[in-house]
Prior knowledge:
Layout (H helix, E strand, L loop, with lengths): L5 E7 L12 E8 L4 E8 L11 E6 L3 H16 L16 E7 L2 E4 L17 H20 L2
Helix pairs in contact: 1-2
Amino acid sequence: MSIPEFSLRLQRGITGGFAPPTPEAIITVTSVPTQNLLNITSAVRPKGTPSLQDALPRSLPASDADTVALVSELRDILRAIPTESPPGSEDIYGLDTSIAFGSDDFFWQNGGPQGCGQGESEVKPTEEDKAKFKRAVEIVEELQAKST
């Protein structure tokens, strides 16, 4: 089974106030079905520094059964959990982390393009939703850790 084309961006550090948030890390994952690869980049901001380090490009075979299972689980989780409303109003999952996931048939994003401000969301996730989002973050981090 192959992984369909998709693009994902995880950002740690999405809450801000008057000033926009300062990202602690950004991980991108892009599926390239023609090459049967996941291209993964990771940029981290070391503590006490003002900006992210340069992104390090890596890849992961998309044909690996474990990788296929992780991506499928991630898609299923994101399809099942809510996002804040209005977008960017509140970090409803409480992890100071956003995920933006897009494919031909599905788009999901929490934490607005400029991060989350001081508003309040009309949508509140259940504890189960929060656990699922935490698992989604773990999956992205696991894919990043497996890449070479």
